[in-house]
Structures
1.
Amino acid sequence: MTSFPQFDQNSPAIVENTMMPLFGVELQQLEEIIKSFTLESYRPRQIWHALYKKRVSTLEEITSLPLSVRNRLTAAGYSIGLPKIAQTFKSSDGTERYLIACGDGETVETVWMPNGDDGEMGDGSDADSEEAAAQSATLSETLPYRRATICVSSQVGCAVNCHFCLTAKLGVRRNLTAGEIAGQVVAVLNRHQARIGRDRINLVFMGMGEPFLNYDNFMAAVHLLVEGVGIPESRMTVSTSGILPGIERFAMEKLRPKLALSLNAPNDTIREAMMPITRKWKIADLLAAMRAIPLRPRERVTFEYVLLGGVNDRREDARELATLLRGSDLQAKVNLIVWNPGPEIPYRMPTPEDVAAFQKQLIASGVPAFLRRPRGRDIYAACGQLKRTLE
Ligand code: SF4
């Protein structure tokens, strides 16, 4: 078995920060904070712009604010409070996994995948993908144009306990704040000096945690990332393990990412053996809730399907899955993910032949199915491998 070093709480890179973070607050909250400083009415918007558009890391960088004001904010205990990249692990395929330190000494993982993992491309669900590809070809001649996907965490650990997932081994430690969720993205964008508008950045909320069990903070982070940082919500995908009340709320949101359901089985019996949460919410109820989401033109809902050797990867599973999805009345597509092995997880990888046959069966049955490229396996950055591991 692969040796798998554990997170070390005494890592010197991770220190507690007792300052009050400004990153993560909305404009209205900022106006409240600034009130007590009796400043000009345009100052809150100026700070908001610096936080999210300019993505500053320190108050000193907000040079549009007089030094005296910056000093007063610092004296009152405020800092920018962006989460910090405490450690970086680089994969041979260009993927980078980060251990990101929150202010209280907790850590989460975030992953940068240059060129994505094909989960968000080539499927017709990304409304502007062809246009962007053409634009990319033109821009690449003049600019260092880049396309990347950032995988973002929503909780420290996770309570859902999917049996194939390493994060589940941590249990849940706490929810991340909106600032800590959006801050992961900004910390990584800053590291790569990415420019929104020039670089094509996709976000997948598929890191540690179940976003719909931290619903309010997750959605607040989405608003900061769309309205502040400027990443369109059509380039964001949130994955849920199937939290029914969360899907029902999500269906009513005006501004929302695309939705992916981590389905992983063609029926409740197989799913329950892999994902105990199925006992609480059945597949049929989840599909019914998903039907209430008004989809954008060309948008599809994604069904993620982690293939486990001998568990859910047989030809008849593919046939049953196709019947389920075709009967669901949803514009669906399937992202197939070859399970990534981890220590103490009692599953085996599917064979390449079984993976190919599964995909072929789905496509032959009229269900679009795409194979996600595994990214960063050598640094434990691939799907289901995030567990705050150190090299
Ligand atoms: S797969 Fe997602 S929802 Fe399930 S335990 Fe892992 S992090 Fe939680």
2.
Amino acid sequence: MSTMLNAISFPGRYCQGKGLLRQIGKWVAVCGKKPVVLWEPFLKDALGAMVSGSFQEHGLTFHDVLFKGETTRAAAQALVAAIKDGGCDVVVGLGGGKAIDTAKAAAALSGARCVIVPTIASNDAPTSACTVWYNDAGDYEGFNMWRFNPDLILVDTEVIARAPVRFLVAGMGDALATWPEASAAYSSRAVSTAGGTQTLTAMAMARLCFDTILRHGLEAREAVARGVVTPAVEKVVEANILLSGVGWESGGLATAHAIANSLPAIHETHGLLHGEKVAFGLMTQLCLEQDWPVEEIYRIVDFLNAVGLPTTFAAMKMQDVSKERLLEFARSVSGEGSFVHNHAFPVAPENIVDAMVAADSLGQRRMNKPAGSPA
Ligand SMILES: [Zn+2]
């Protein structure tokens, strides 16, 4: 007889606020004495003076390694070497998802502490214990789940608000799917990457994520488009990074991410961000679901359209993809162990193609709905 195990995993500490990066030295000093920072050259140019000033203020001398842009095993090993050579005890991964994933890997492999400073809020990399690997050409090469989540996440909302608004919006796509995916995974009692079935806490965080994005997403987008930080921005950034991060890792995934993670097979979609692909994956999942009320589905589609996330084949640059290619894609999405099987009902490749076509049609229809029409 097997026992049911519920599991949830968290980062050690999460701090968020406007101008927080000016205090980075104070927070990193809690974790270690000798930091090494991994960042891209453009971020070093933009934020280097502020970061080194704060380290100096708190008596920390630091090394740094320039990130070349891809999460390769070689990049992680180079960072491990820098940690050992410099006698460093804490890794600071500063930047987007790929730099963050590399820093998490080097911390896990070297035993150093891990501080994550996301400069955009476009994906779920900051809080999770996961690294997704690529080769130098940018092709997917598997992933690792590390023993622990990062020790500390520092989110400066001023930095996030200065990044192009497209990143925040993509993060909302990734975040909005968290609850529909976690509820699907819960309905089938699918084991999440945290190592068990869903805790009440993870489900509550996933639901709060969903409600926060729908309620404040549009306002946050308007603010960040103008480079300002408002209470709506603070709420949406917390949802995009913390609630969505813990929500997917400990709630579980379903069709939305199965689609998004496989879309590299359709080369037309290469220019799209992860969260944009998840948005269309969510559309597909909603057209596959058997129990979601139609009003609730319309609410989600209308939100995606309002913030400018892709809801149609045209927006996904997939308008010329034939039915045969869609079916081939759907077969690649629905192999054994795929997240599409985390639903309470069976999902076949033909169901996925039908749902994608239905999603495209739904996205168009809601875009063209007459002004003031109900729901
Ligand atoms: Zn995601």
